[in-house]
Predict the structure.
Amino acid sequence: MKSLIIAAGAAVIGLTMLTSTSTPASAAYCFYKTFKHEGGQIGHIQGYAHAFKLKNACKRARRECNRRLERAYRNPNKHIPRGVTCQRTGHS
C-alpha cells in the first residue's frame, strides 16, 4: 500500500515536471490605432489581435479597427472626421 502511494506521488510529480517545462507556442500580435492624415492620434478607436502568424494577426487587427471606425462614423454622438485611417502601431 505504501509503495502504491509513493508510485502515485512520483507519477504526479513527473507529470507536473513535464507540463511545466513545455513552453506554449508563441503567438504574434498586432495593434492598430486611428490617426489623422495630418498626424496625431484621434479618438480611442483601436484594433488588437493575435494569431500564430504575424500576417494573420495584422489582418484581424486592421479589420477590427476599420469595423470600429465605421461604427463611429455612423454614430451621431461621435464626431470623427472623414480623414481618419487605421495604422499599425505595434507588432511582434
